[in-house]
């Protein structure tokens, strides 16, 4: 058996290699990317917009400061308003993205109340989560979402009203599923089992902290987790997980099957799992760099990483660079600002200052090493600070990527609803150019 598997593995190694020149020859957009790394436009949406460049009249692009828009409204304006009014904003973002309009105070209060009251799970689902075995909460989350199909009286109903009911139910229950799954995972590792049920009247952010940590959190903890949920709620229709949701939705499948496919896409280390790579790299750098204020020492190790001589030898500085944002990632800037306040509260100013210097030197060294030749500008992306923020909140690494899903379920539902209600629906079916040469079939007895 092992010999046959080894032989087939070798054939896969050979037969999955495609000459990069063939992409140019056949004008194939690899990874649905243009030559300048911008995404190929494959659809229209009214949900979210990710802006990092402007296209000139001659067809070239020009980098601009990054902007993230929800239904045409700048997320920075929403965050600023929420902070000025000293309130939380994720529920308002969820309403805006789902409904397409900002809620009145009465509508927001009612919507927040519905979400809070819907967070609790019935006993059958709770016991199912506790019985699930596995080492990855994203996997458990995907399986639980599929299980929710059996508890839905109308799982295949794609009317607007039912889609909104399903959306609200998923947004409300994701925090609870993730918290229960983490506590079950923790118990499987030999720890005591603590199940705290969500409290009606608390926000999704505060309820999540309560279910994970009990009463061991501060008002600032709630505010910065709420901010993290706000900035992760949507990122346009082209990011991998959202596009996966739209592709499966276009086939006419049910909500739970479609959303679970998005979870599985987000799980990948090149997408939602990237924050774990950043965290691992930061632990290595903190341990390796003796003087966290030394520019020369930081530059030296970053150059070694870029030359594939240090860390995991991939040549990547995780948390630096983005497919669309080049000058700045607005999500990273918003998180960085509140991370400063959180670091002061937690007594971790030295680490925060190190993060800021590391960000500056990483961009500088990347541009020196790669940027000037390619002409590509880079900035820190949201993953650079999100892991540090979650660590200061006292949250375990097991839930970093699930937290991403907890926010992004809002965008997934909105994009699915839009895909299903588009007035000229068509299954998404891009083409692939076959790069294999024609061969003659040989009879079984003639093969050696």
Can you tell me about this structure?
- The protein has 448 residues and is mainly alpha-helical.
- The chain folds into two domains: 204 residues, Citrate Synthase, domain 1 (Orthogonal Bundle); 119 residues, Cytochrome p450-Terp, domain 2.
- Helices cover 57% and strands 4% of the residues.
- It contains 18 helices and three strands.
- The protein has a three-stranded antiparallel sheet with strand order 1-2-3.
- A hairpin with a 5-residue loop joins strand 1 and strand 2.
- Helix 10 runs antiparallel to helix 15, helix 11 runs parallel beside helix 18 and helix 15 runs antiparallel to helix 16.
- The longest helix has 29 residues.
- The chain starts with a helix and ends in a 27-residue tail after the last helix.
- The mean pLDDT is 92.
Précis, in short:
This protein is mainly alpha-helical and 448 residues long. It contains 18 helices and 3 strands.
Keywords for this entry:
Cytochrome p450-Terp, domain 2, 2 domains, 18 helices, Citrate Synthase, domain 1, mainly alpha, globular, three-stranded antiparallel beta sheet, 448 residues
Number of helices: 18
Let me know the average pLDDT: 92
Distance from N terminus to C terminus (CA atoms, Å) equals 19 Å
Regarding quaternary structure, what we see is single chain
What topology does this entry show?
Layout: H1 2-15, H2 20-25, E1 48-55, E2 61-70, E3 73-74, H3 75-84, H4 90-99, H5 105-118, H6 123-131, H7 137-148, H8 160-188, H9 204-213, H10 219-232, H11 240-250, H12 255-266, H13 274-288, H14 295-306, H15 330-346, H16 349-374, H17 382-392, H18 400-421
Antiparallel strand pairs: 1-2, 2-3
């Amino acid at each position: 058996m092992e010999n046959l598997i080894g032989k087939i593995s070798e054939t896969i190694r050979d037969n999955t290699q495609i000459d990069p020149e063939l992409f140019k020859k056949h004008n194939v957009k690899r990874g649905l990317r243009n030559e300048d790394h911008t995404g190929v436009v494959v659809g229209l949406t009214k949900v979210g917009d990710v802006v990092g460049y402007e296209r000139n009249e001659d067809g070239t692009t020009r980098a601009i400061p990054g902007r993230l828009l929800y239904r045409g409204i700048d997320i920075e304006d929403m965050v600023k308003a929420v902070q000025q009014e000293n309130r939380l904003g994720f529920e308002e973002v969820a309403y805006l993205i789902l409904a397409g309009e900002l809620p009145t105070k009465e509508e927001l209060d009612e919507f927040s109340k519905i979400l809070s009251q819907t967070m609790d799970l019935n006993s059958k689902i709770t016991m199912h989560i506790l019985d699930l075995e596995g080492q990855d909460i994203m996997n458990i989350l995907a399986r639980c979402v599929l299980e929710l199909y059996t508890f839905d009286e109308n799982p295949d109903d794609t009317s607007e009203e039912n889609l909104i009911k399903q959306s609200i139910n998923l947004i409300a229950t994701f925090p609870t599923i993730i918290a229960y799954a983490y506590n079950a995972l923790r118990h499987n590792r030999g720890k005591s089992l603590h199940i705290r049920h969500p409290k009606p009247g608390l926000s999704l952010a505060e309820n999540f902290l309560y279910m994970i940590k009990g009463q061991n959190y501060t008002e600032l903890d709630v505010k910065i987790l709420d901010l993290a949920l706000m900035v992760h709620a949507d990122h346009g229709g082209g990011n991998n997980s959202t596009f996966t949701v739209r592709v499966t939705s276009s086939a006419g499948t049910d909500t739970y099957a479609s959303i679970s496919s998005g979870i599985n896409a987000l799980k990948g280390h090149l997408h939602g799992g990237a924050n774990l790579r950043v965290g691992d790299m930061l632990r290595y750098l903190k341990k390796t760099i003796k003087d966290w204020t030394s520019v020369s020492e930081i530059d030296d190790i970053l150059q070694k990483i870029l030359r594939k001589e240090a860390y995991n030898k991939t040549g990547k500085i995780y948390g630096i660079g983005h497919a669309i944002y080049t000058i700045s990632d607005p999500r990273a800037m918003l998180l960085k600002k509140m991370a400063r306040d959180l670091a002061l509260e937690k007594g971790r100013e030295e680490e925060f200052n190190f993060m800021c210097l590391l960000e500056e030197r990483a961009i500088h060294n990347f541009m020196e090493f790669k940027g000037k030749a390619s002409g590509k500008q880079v900035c820190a992306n949201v993953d650079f600070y999100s892991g540090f923020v979650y660590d200061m909140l006292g949250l375990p690494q097991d839930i970093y990527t699930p937290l991403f899903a907890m926010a992004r379920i809002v965008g997934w539902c909105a994009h699915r609803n839009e895909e299903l209600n588009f007035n000229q629906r068509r299954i998404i079916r891009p083409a692939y150019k076959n790069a294999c040469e024609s061969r003659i079939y040989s009879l079984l007895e003639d093969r050696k």
